[in-house]
Amino acid sequence: MTTQEHVGTERAELLAEADKRTLIHPHSVIGAPAEPLVLDRGEGAVVWDVNGKSYIDGTCGLWQCPVGHGRDELAAAAAEQMGRLEFYSSFGDYSNEPAIRLAERLLELAPPNMRRVFLTNGGSEGNETAIKLARLAHHHAGNPERFVILAREGGYHGMGGGSLAATGIDRLREGYGPLMPGIEFLAKPHSVRGADVTDRLVGELEERIAEIGPERIAAFIGEPVLGVGGMVPPPEDYWPRVQDVLRRHGILLVVDEVVTAFGRIGHWFGSARYGIEPDLIVTAKGLTSGYIPMGAVLAGERVLDLADGAAFLHGFTYNGHPVGSAVALANIGVLEREGLLERAETLGARLLAALKPLERLDRVLEVRGVGMMLGVELTGPDAATAAAGVQAGARADGVIVRASGTTIVLSPPLVIDEGRLDTLARVLTEHVTAA
Ligand code: PLP
């Protein structure tokens, strides 16, 4: 008998047992499977497990779901496109209508100097693409030695060869042998409780450029707001000053907006929030609200001028996927029609205000956030264990939050109602207070 033939508690137990016997989960310990939370369905800001227990989704899964769970409109867009043309490669001269329409739509919404779109399957692949394109652009323009990528401690760009190499989180990098060479790290752009750190960060950037030699540096990569690194908004003057320095040295700016794009911080692109003029923008997650894996890399004028005429022999089978593109278009339609970008600002301010009093606790280093990207950072030698304990305790009480190192990260769907948002804040407050 298979698990499908059982119902109720028996089904739940069999599924859990089969999960542990068969799957390797991302971010799990090989040979020591965790007790899985087997989810069954979702609606809005709530998901249910196979036992029927409900959870307020305080993280949107992995931040991917601004329009919330269970939207028939997105399912219908996928089904309609699958019935018409499920897939055809977009290598070379092949194309399809949803991909073309999505590219047009993205360029309408993007910062003004963006000119072209490369559609991907997710964030890591987007960053691989952006890093390769930045390097290729300089190579093609006659500067093949210009390949160094500047990245930052605390930055997260994914799990591929280049995207992991540019990720500044040590615990994720260990054990895989040499990663992609030519990546240099700068300090984490974190101003704890508003301390003035921009002078130091910009000074370090100038020094490192001088040491390495600007003629060797292809690009700088960074998230507008550090996500996995702890939901860290930068000081307001950080990005304008960083991009001035980069511009002066002809260094391209790759902005990783895998989390910040599509409303999470109140704008279509987080770059608009911080006055950033990127050369390349990497998106994923919120593009389709995760209903289907998809990402997009947007390329600006400068990089396209440098790369003009270069053969870009890069691509993955499912790039330009018509079903993903159709879902993305439907998702963008929902974000727009329901005013969810504005909602991110209002709800984010409400949640931040509700959690800010936690800063009075010795256990709490900082409560911070911008739009619907918030973090509660714990302190103390056991802070990471305590954060994991908060995650487990809140889940037992029907609220999903996520411990990322020492920070509890929050990014609810933008459709969450005020009542559930307040419950999320109350449950989190209880568990952090007890941590
Ligand atoms: N970049 C950022 C900022 C991310 O947060 C993530 C994933 O969390 C990625 C890239 C990698 O995206 P994916 O997991 O879709 O490959």
Strands, helices and their partners?
Blueprint: H1 8-22, E1 39-43, E2 46-49, E3 54-57, H2 60-63, H3 72-84, H4 97-109, E4 114-120, H5 123-140, E5 148-152, H6 161-165, H7 170-173, E6 183-186, H8 198-212, E7 217-222, H9 238-248, E8 252-256, H10 270-274, E9 280-283, E10 295-300, H11 301-307, H12 322-337, H13 340-355, E11 364-370, E12 373-378, H14 383-396, E13 399-400, E14 402-404, E15 407-410, H15 418-434
Parallel strand pairs: 3-13, 5-6, 5-7, 7-8, 8-9
Antiparallel strand pairs: 1-2, 2-3, 4-10, 9-10, 11-12, 12-15, 14-15
Helix pairs in contact: 3-12, 4-12, 5-11, 8-9, 13-15, 14-15
Compact overview of the structure:
By secondary structure, the protein is an alpha/beta fold. It is 40% helix and 17% strand.
Structure in words:
By secondary structure, the chain is α/β, with parallel strands linked by helices. The protein has two domains: 37-70 and 339-434, Aspartate Aminotransferase, domain 1 (Alpha-Beta Complex); 73-337, 3-Layer(aba) Sandwich (Aspartate Aminotransferase, domain 2), CATH 3.40.640. The chain is 40% helix and 17% strand. It has helices at 8-22, 60-63, 72-84, 97-109, 123-140, 161-165, 170-173, 198-212, 238-248, 270-274, 301-307, 322-337, 340-355, 383-396, 418-434, and strands at residues 39-43, 46-49, 54-57, 114-120, 148-152, 183-186, 217-222, 252-256, 280-283, 295-300, 364-370, 373-378, 399-400, 402-404, 407-410. The strands form three sheets. Strands 4-10-9-8-7-5-6 form a seven-stranded mixed β-sheet, with helices on both faces. Strands 1-2-3-13 form a four-stranded mixed β-sheet. It has a four-stranded antiparallel β-sheet with strand order 11-12-15-14, covered by helices on one side. A hairpin with a 2-residue loop joins strand 1 and strand 2 (46-49). Helix 3 packs antiparallel against helix 12 (322-337), helix 5 crosses helix 11 and helix 13 (340-355) runs parallel beside helix 15 (418-434). The longest helix is centred in the N-terminal third of the chain and has 18 residues, at 123-140. The radius of gyration is 22 Å and the shape is globular. The mean pLDDT is 96. InterPro entries: Aminotrans_3, Aminotrans_3_PPA_site, PyrdxlP-dep_Trfase, PyrdxlP-dep_Trfase_major, PyrdxlP-dep_Trfase_small. Belongs to the class-III pyridoxal-phosphate-dependent aminotransferase family. This is Aspartate aminotransferase family protein. One of its GO terms (molecular function) is pyridoxal phosphate binding.
